[in-house]
Amino acid sequence: ELPPSEFMQVADSTWLVLSVVSNGREPPGCQATGVTKIARSVIAPLAEHHVSVLMLSTYQTDFILVRERDLPVVIHTLAGEFDIYREESGECVPVTCDDVSNGFLKPKPPTSPTLHPVQSPQTRFCVLTVAPDTLPAIATMLIDVLFYSHSPPWDAATSSQDLDSITFFSFSLIEGYISIVMDAETQKRFPSDLLLTSSTGELWRMVRIGGQPLGFDECGIVAQIAEPLAAADISAYYISTFNFDHALVPEEGIAEVIQLLQQRQESSR
């Protein structure tokens, strides 16, 4: 519905959404759990088969986006461990390898993934949700934050350094469920009684992956982060964007996360 514009850049590929559920049901409760081990069991095999993914964690659950042209490889890769369904007119229809065998692409020979720098700004973040019927009460503030609070211009000279702070705001509306990520200072601008968070009210710190825009063809970026954190049983809330990837982890675990990722980079050299 968006009109063509010289100001809007659109990736060439069309993407499909994978929603990973356990025993046919969504994870119970509304709590930000991030890149779960179930999601990890999808991300790692896809990376091995050279399937690029975009990861989108929300307050309610995780979504993995894959390019439509990669669907045959995705089905063949995951069919051994997962029951796979596609949604048709609101109904879930089983999918088998035979459904997508035509055009199946065999995986390419393995290559060493690029090790991207990670940065950990000092900014503290909140992961929140809001009831849809209360959205009009904060609409003006949302518009102000989304469209009139601008990030400082990107400076390539800072690419190898940790950022002191980062401007980051994420708003997603998926099937009626709203998920918001904002820094703790921005949260103070909103009525506290309308923003819902986990019972612990924990704050999150960010690890940003990439010193320059990552593109959409490289594989294994999410796996490089998700695997060591899942192995250490550290919850991570992961958001892929047009330019960079961002992993949010509980504030008290940021030092351990940085150490794990640094060790992984050193061992891969």
UniProtKB/TrEMBL annotation:
The keyword Ubl conjugation applies. It holds the Pfam family CASTOR1_ACT-like. Residues 116-199 form the Cytosolic arginine sensor for mTORC1 subunit 1/2 ACT-like domain. GO terms for biological process: negative regulation of TORC1 signaling. The keyword S-adenosyl-L-methionine does not apply. One of its GO terms (cellular component) is cytosol. InterPro entries: ACT-like_dom_sf (IPR045865), CASTOR1_ACT-like (IPR049479), CASTOR_ACT_dom (IPR027795), CASTOR_fam (IPR026249), CASTOR_mTORC1 (IPR051719). One of its GO terms (molecular function) is arginine binding. Gene3D superfamilies: VC0802-like. It is found in: Cytoplasm, Cytosol. Residues 11-78, 201-262 form the CASTOR ACT domain. Keywords: Cytoplasm, Phosphoprotein, Ubl conjugation. Functions as an intracellular arginine sensor within the amino acid-sensing branch of the TORC1 signaling pathway. As a homodimer or a heterodimer with CASTOR2, binds and inhibits the GATOR subcomplex GATOR2 and thereby mTORC1. Binding of arginine to CASTOR1 allosterically disrupts the interaction of CASTOR1-containing dimers with GATOR2 which can in turn activate mTORC1 and the TORC1 signaling pathway. Belongs to the GATS family. PANTHER family: CHROMOSOME 1, WHOLE GENOME SHOTGUN SEQUENCE, CYTOSOLIC ARGININE SENSOR FOR MTORC1 SUBUNIT 1. Forms homodimers and heterodimers with CASTOR2. Interacts with the GATOR2 complex which is composed of MIOS, SEC13, SEH1L, WDR24 and WDR59; the interaction is negatively regulated by arginine. Interacts with TM4SF5; the interaction is positively regulated by leucine and is negatively regulated by arginine. This is Cytosolic arginine sensor for mTORC1 subunit 1. It comes from Leucopsar rothschildi. The lineage of its organism: Eukaryota, Metazoa, Chordata, Craniata, Vertebrata.
